[in-house]
Write a structure and sequence with these properties.
Layout: H1 2-9, H2 20-62, E1 66-67, E2 77-84, H3 95-107, E3 111-120, H4 125-141, E4 147-156, H5 158-163, E5 168-171, E6 176-178, E7 183-185, H6 190-196, H7 220-245, E8 260-262, H8 263-269, E9 274-275, H9 278-286, E10 291-293, E11 296-297, H10 300-307, H11 312-321, E12 324-326
Parallel strand pairs: 2-3, 2-10, 3-4, 4-5, 4-6, 5-9
Antiparallel strand pairs: 1-11, 6-8, 7-12
Length: about 325
């Protein structure tokens, strides 16, 4: 009995406070506590990062494209609109983007005139035609508002189509100018299919609905028809250039052959009016040192998608399987 009471009154056995076992237990507990603190800190960090990421995506989605985002000078200035790259509906140099910028420039009371700064190989005749017609229309609304085209490295085909609507065209002596022609391009895979034993199955309603199918043998009648379409489009292109340039064009049989010339040669042929840069035109023609960029700027989201190449696969498929008509 006495022994049992004695055992109950004794303290539970535990390591001495200064023993190695107790220090080890303390170290394990402290490490566990530190790990928990670090886990909480990382949890807060990743939650904050996720919030910032989602906020950025929402902001990018809501951010519209703008024209001329730079600070405007106090005085008058030249409105610069850049025609860069291929002229097509889904590119920076689309008719919608260029026409929107042109309208903004014509509506701006502080703008003294427009300088189209061109660096493009051409593209869609439809898109180029839209821009050409809109320049002509806008000039009727404000006849004293001049439009100058300045060709940088390249102003060919559809790009020259647009330039022809300007009052005057300028370029560098080494610029490439012209290429007044039309091209329809595609591929043919018939022999490759035969080699690999691939059979084409296409079902259509309409004698020529499979017109220019790259997986079928070329039809001579359809080839002749397509050549006729190209000639009509070429004729329209020539007429618009003549309308824009008038008697300044020299009588040269190669002028509308699709050839391209240096700026110096283009000057001799009447395709351009002189050799000058954008800033030089602003000084000498518009009497200002100030240039304000009115070029349409895509939204940050659109730019992000473009950088990731979301449309690359679609563009590659189009290149392989479709006949395309372009001024280049």
């Amino acid at each position: 009995m006495d022994n049992e009471n004695l055992n109950q009154n004794q303290p539970a056995n535990r390591p001495d406070d200064n023993s190695k076992e107790w220090k080890l237990i303390e170290k394990v507990l402290m490490d566990m506590q530190g790990e928990q603190k670090r886990a909480r800190r990382w949890g807060i960090f990743f939650k904050a990062l996720t919030f910032i990421y989602l906020f950025a995506i929402i902001w990018l989605l809501r951010m519209p494209g703008e024209h001329g985002t730079e600070m405007l000078p106090e005085g008058n200035y030249a409105a610069v609109i850049e025609v860069n790259g291929v002229i097509a509906a889904d590119q920076d140099a689309s008719a919608d983007a260029l026409i929107g910028a042109l309208r903004d420039a014509f509506d701006d009371e502080k703008a003294l005139g427009v300088i189209l700064r061109i660096n493009s190989p051409g593209g869609s005749p439809v898109q180029a035609g839209y821009v050409y017609d809109e320049i002509k229309r806008l000039k009727e609304t404000r006849p004293d508002f001049p439009v100058y085209a300045v060709i940088m490295d390249l102003g060919a085909s559809g790009a020259y189509y647009i330039a022809a609507a300007a009052d005057e065209i300028y370029a560098d002596k080494a610029s490439l100018v012209g290429s007044i022609g039309v091209v329809g391009s595609g591929f043919g895979f018939v022999k490759a299919m035969e080699k690999f034993g691939v059979e084409r199955r296409q079902y259509t309603a309409g004698e020529h609905k499979g017109f220019l199918d790259p997986f079928l043998p070329e039809n001579e009648d359809e080839k002749a028809f397509w050549q006729g379409v190209l000639k009509v489009t070429h004729k329209q292109f020539i007429e618009q250039v003549k309308l824009g340039r008038g008697e300044r064009l020299k009588d040269d049989p190669n002028l509308f052959s699709g050839l391209v010339w240096s700026g110096e040669q283009a000057l001799d042929l009447g395709l351009i009016d002189g050799l000058a840069s954008s800033s030089q035109i602003a000084r000498e023609k518009l009497d200002t040192e100030e240039l304000v960029n009115f070029t349409y700027q895509p939204s940050p989201w659109d730019e992000l998608v473009k950088r990731f190449g979301a449309s690359m696969g679609r563009g590659f498929a189009t290149l392989l399987t479709e006949q395309t008509l372009s001024l280049r």
